[in-house]
Amino acid sequence: MKPPIRVLIADDHDMLREGLAMFLKAFPDMEMVGEATNGQEAVALCRELSPDVALLDLVMPEMDGVAAIRLIHAERPGTALIALSSFGEERLVRAALEAGATSYLLKNVSAEKLAEAIRLACAGISSLSPEAPAALVSGGRAEAAAELTPREREILRLLVDGRSNAEIAAQLGLSLYTVKNHVRNLLGKLGVGSRTEAVSLVLQKGLL
């Protein structure tokens, strides 16, 4: 049996931290290893505890979430970082992702989706709230395409070649579940609703 995913929570609101702590107790494959009330505490606790995943609010005193993400990512690249925010503004989304966040979620995310995002982040797969790619699209789809990871760009090229998810999984040595998640995320980042739209966009704009 795999050890539980070790999660650190950083938020300056006591009720939100308590809610997240209760949420984690409902999932036996996760455990909370620490709580931080500001960005500086989050950085210090990540150094001390080496969590698998850290959930960080973006608006905190002492040091904001983006600055904390940047420092933690530089010092502990093995810790997956999930930005939690009440806002889906392009400025915040882009800043968090560029600082090193694996995922960007709004605080109204459901418990099930947050649990899935934590598991995916631990596996190195990003998750984005629908508002996040929409914000990136508002700044230009070509710029949004630049946010694709190398693996997502590789899969997008295979989509353009007309490969199915099963064929992509076989060629890249990935599980079908992993490929489906990558496809979902790259569609979100490009701001399109289907594989066909993604391929059309790539061919029209020359994004690859």
- Read across the widest sheet, the strand sequence of neighbours is 2-1-3-4-5
Q: What is the general shape?
A: globular
Helix tally?
A: 11
Structural class: alpha/beta
Distance between the termini: 41 Å
Radius of gyration from CA coordinates: 17 Å
State which percent range the strand residues make up: 5-15%
Helix fraction bin: 40-55%
> What is the string of helix and strand elements?
EHEHEHEHEHHHHHHH
Major sheet description:
5 strands, parallel
Poorly predicted runs are none
Helix/strand layout:
Blueprint: E1 5-10, H1 14-25, E2 30-36, H2 39-49, E3 53-57, H3 65-75, E4 80-85, H4 90-99, E5 103-106, H5 111-122, H6 131-138, H7 141-145, H8 150-160, H9 165-172, H10 176-190, H11 195-205
Parallel strand pairs: 1-2, 1-3, 3-4, 4-5
